[in-house]
Amino acid sequence: MHTGERLIVIVLFEGVDLLDVTGPPEVFSLARRETEEAAGYDVALAAETMDPITTAAGVRILPDVTFAELTRRSIDTLVVPGAVEVDGQHRVQALVDPAVVERVRQLAPRTRRITSVCVGAHILAASGLLDGKRATTHWSTAQQLAADHPAVEVDSDPIFIREGNVWTGAGISACLDLSLALIADDLGEAVALRVARQLVMYLKRPSGQSQFSVPLEQVSATRRIEDLRHHILRHIAEPLTVAHLAAHAHVSDRQLTRIFKTELGTTPHVYIESVRVERARHELETTDATLERIATACGFGTVDTLVRAFRRRLDTTPTEYRRRFRTGGD
Description:
Blueprint: E1 6-11, H1 18-34, E2 41-47, E3 53-54, E4 60-61, E5 65-66, E6 75-80, E7 84-86, E8 92-94, H2 98-107, E9 111-116, H3 121-126, E10 134-135, H4 142-148, E11 153-154, E12 160-163, E13 166-169, H5 174-187, H6 189-198, H7 214-217, H8 223-234, H9 242-249, H10 253-264, H11 268-286, H12 291-297, H13 303-314, H14 318-325
Parallel strand pairs: 1-2, 1-6, 2-5, 6-9, 9-13, 10-11
Antiparallel strand pairs: 3-4, 7-8, 12-13
């Protein structure tokens, strides 16, 4: 390890997601290339022993250092990746090894900045590092995180969240966005933008950027809620009131609200808005349709309502979103 550099420690354990481990080092290595500053990043993969670690992808990784060797080192950034298992019904469950949790808890006091990648947030939560904090994780395990750790304010929408010296990231590819944000925090926006260009990424997605297709990918347990979701998608341009949906489902307004809360963890109004925003995002990314046409087609009615929804859910405007994420045309 080189002295005078920021020591980035990535936690390894059996079954860890491969991209969670390999994504951040690639970003940090490009930062070294793109800056003339003497102080760069020194990335070390840490595990319980020096034996090879087998990732979820089946690829084996060799650690650089053991956890025991780090107990007397000052760590700049601790990166905690995650691991999941999927059952026969394709339900995703985050895995948390108590031994890894204990090692993270031991290393945290010696660390300037603590981050989690994807479902690594479950390990931070189990170590108590997210208590009283707002945090994100991959949308597929957000309900599990909230249920297992009531002291954590779980927000499954942003791609990453910063709370003091603790950063949590969302889906696996969001580890790149999180790493860019860490570089911007250390070396400035200009360096982070140069790294983003080298990665051929859209220039630094803001933390408020929503995870892709969250409302459309949530898993529900009953045929009734699935029918409601498809009905919403088919009639997204029309007024969709609680009374209308309740009548379609043959339940009372109160029952409908309870069904949405139980099955999807949200209200009908919030869910419908999220679907409309998702549809509008697709239109902005792939068409040249005017904001007026998109607002009408997605059920917002007016451009003003569309803009307010984008500000509320994505912390940006439709025009700015199109500028950043347009995939067709010029």
